[in-house]
Amino acid sequence: MNIADAKEQIKDSVEAYLLKDDAGMYKINPARQRPIFLIGAPGIGKTAIMEQIAQELQIGIVSYSMTHHTRQSALGLPRIVHNEFEGFEYDSSEYTMSEIVSSIYDYMGETGLRAGILFLDEINCVSETLYPSMLQFLQFKTFGRHRIPHDWIIVCAGNPPEYNKSVHEFDIVTLDRLREIEVEPEYAAWKRYATQKGIHPAVTTFLEAKPDCFYLVQSKPGGGKSFVTARGWEDLAEAIALYEEMGKPISRDLIGQFLRDDDIADSFSVYYNLFDKYRSDYQIMSILSGEAGLDIINRARGAEFDERVALLGLMLDAVANACAHALEQEEVVISLRDILRDAKPALLDGASIDETVGIVTGSREQALARKIASGTAKPSYERKEGLVIAKLKRLMEQCRLAGTVIGEEAFATISDAYREEVNAIDPLVKTADGQMTNAFKFLEEAWGNGREMLVMVAELTTRQTTTQFIAHYGNEAYYAHNDELQVDEHRRSLSERVRTLDINAEEAVRPGETVADGGQTIGEYYGGKQFEYGFASMSKMTLPDAAALKGKTVLDVACRRGKGCFKFSAKVGGTGRVIGVDWSPSYIAEAIEDSERAWRKNNLKANNMDFKVAYPEDLMEAGIGEGTVDVVYINNVMTLLYDQGKALEEFYRVLKPGGLLICETIVSDVPRDEAVVEKARSIGNSIQAARPEDLLRSQMEAAGFTDIELVESYEVEADRGFTSSTVVETVPSTETVRFDAVALNARK
Asked: What pTM does this model have?
């Protein structure tokens, strides 16, 4: 399998091994928890995925390369101990605790993390003297008399014999106690990782044109090995970016230090020189500022395939960076806003900046240091927290320089300084939006709506930073070239987003609305409909077993005040994630507040729920990207949606391949009087708003769903309220119709 699939296999296994029942006992007895043995070629990313798994599961990781260990360091040193048994005294020898086992206890003491992964790399390359002890360790999870702590999972890695002469092949007895996962290098899997990480475009565009150069290990005619690995490409890309920043040349010698095959190194060196020439000749920033001359357009029009790929890569990289800068500033400002809102009452009551902002700054510094020390801090989190802390310190320093460190004067100084941070968002957004628009304009002029345009739209849709930027701020050129996502009429404008950053505001502001079918905007439609007391008995939620949801990402559409999310939170557990979206800012605010109690009640270590204001027809507004969700859940509010077909298309878009849609809604047994249906929708009666089941199924199929299954069905009355004793308003009607509450499951 490829490295991405291997990562999911290992992550699922670790979650399963850590799972306990109501009595606190492991679902899989530790004695039966087979260590995972990851075997694959060198430089393929085995160590990297282990660090990613630990970060994603928020557990610890202790790593060792076993080739560096002797029998003494792994087992410990012998010592003489005095023993007594029923009056018989004797001396015996035993070993001190292994350095490997003791390091886990040291790690737990330093970080506070009680669960984790013990990752032993190059396990099949240990010395001859240590080999028997390693077999004992893999079989019984002990070094000498010392067992690794509970809640620590063993994962090993090694290279196949053809890559390392010192490899020992495990016997069948040992292999029968391991879970072996073989990994093969695959460019497509690495490309997805490289796109998200922002690997230098010279590397990604070269490999896009020559994927056969991605991985190579072969013998040289005169002896030795020539090789190129995924690790080598990533490290080279990082070096290129840094050297360019410092203004230093990218020489063939530098490239050869990372790509250890002469032919591939020569090929990439030639390509990089061309790539650098394209960057200079095409004047990328001129293109993205809308100032490309006719000569540049004509050159692009006549360019060969490799040159076009390089040019697209350069433009996409620049646009993505501009989007990332705008999003980062907004994210930092949102954190500052929340901190300063919390500090405001105390400051206005006469507290000092040290007693308010200073305490928060110190605690965030300590929390960040702990995460860095434990290895569970993602680089993006580390950077964002570092920026927040730095800006908090700058705010306090401005107060000290102004001599306003206490009370209302301090808050006034902080407000002025904070406003500058908010104002910094505007030019960053305009820059990113302008660059994206001008990139589309250039592609139209040079190549029309050909494959280059398709690549541009696809890349913008799949890259996390550009997807988020479009979801937050929109881009008219993007919508114009992406028919499937033309929902820009209700995007939030920049000015409206900035208004939500006011530290004196109590609630987020919904965006302005646009005209839709029938003359009513989506905002006007949802604005007057809270649907508070419609049919709600389906909130019993006919869901898969908890084991099937453990560790999954679940999206609850129209989550209201979040009660369904709280239930999902318990089912997905600490390694899963729940996203609740609703169009009502007040409901989302309540859900966020109540979620703090809910995750603690669910006995979780941290809050695994996020809540976003968004319409069901436009989940990009919540920043939910394509193929990012395992399960989408929606209840009977389905019959009340503004555009049921568009909502189903959005559910399909955000689901991963094989993902599950759970639709618990109402259907009728006959075609309906549309006048009655529309009146029912206007008063929020989800039962009378129902249409036939076959119509709903056809809409699901049109959106792309398959394997549509009826899980449950029972009859309900048109006036049924949120409890069996509650009735709701109905629309007078002469129809003869039966309504059924149904649970339909479907797959992407």
From this structure: 0.58
